[in-house]
Amino acid sequence: MKNKNIYSSSVIFAVILLIDQISKFMISNTMRLYESITVIDNIFHITYVKNKGVAFGMMSNYPSVVFFVVLISVILLTYIILHFRGKNLWISWGVSMVLAGATGNFIDRLRLGYVVDFLDIHFWPGIFNVADSSIVIGTFVFLIGILKAEIMDERLHRREKSF
Questions:
Q1: pLDDT tens-digit series, residues 48-80
Q2: What pLDDT does residue 38 have?
Q3: Distance (Å, whole) CA 132 – CA 100
Q4: Are 56 and 125 within 8 A, CB to CB?
Q5: What is the pLDDT of residue 84?
């Protein structure tokens, strides 16, 4: 089971990273900066922007700080996934998703000096990308894994008490 968890987590990481990098490459090579394509009128557009900051462009005036914070985050996430590998599928998958997203945006920062964003949902406060989505969804998957682990620990603890 442990090898299956490691394999599935690695596949999740690779697929998300590949989709993220291909989509960013396609956007930056086929669209002009700030160009917007309507997908669903007044709801969803593809809009090409450059983000030098983090979420919603925060800290864009501090690219060195952002770079090192992201680098430390990638290293920490790599440690977490190695520590939890095989222990809980939800935790492994969640951390793999967060790590894939962080790595995708880190590659942009290394290669370009900014992150390519393009998913523009009009009721959302900012434009984002596949990597950002993976980080958010992965965080929820990770939290579900933590909750499941806590529930399983509680059940095991109750069983031990009853014997």
A1: 999 986 665 555 556 677 678 878 887 887 787
A2: 98
A3: 10
A4: yes
A5: 66
Q: Order across the sheet with 36-40: list the strands.
A: 36-40, 44-51, 115-121
Instruction: Supply the angle between the helices 89-112 and 2-30 in degrees, to the nearest 10.
Output: 30
Q: What is the pLDDT of residue 159?
A: 63
153 classed as catalytic: no
Is 120 an active-site residue?
Answer: no
State the catalytic residue, choosing from 41, 117, 120, 153.
117
Please name the residues in contact with 24: beta carbons below 8 A apart, sequence gap of 6 or more. Answer: 104, 108, 116, 118, 129, 130
In this structure, are residues 46 and 27 in contact, taking their beta carbons and an 8 Å threshold?
yes
pTM to 2 decimals? 0.81
How many Cβ atoms are within 10 Å of 58's Cβ, its own excluded?
Answer: 12
Contact 113, 28 (CB under 8 A): no
| Residue 1 CA from chain centroid, whole number | 25
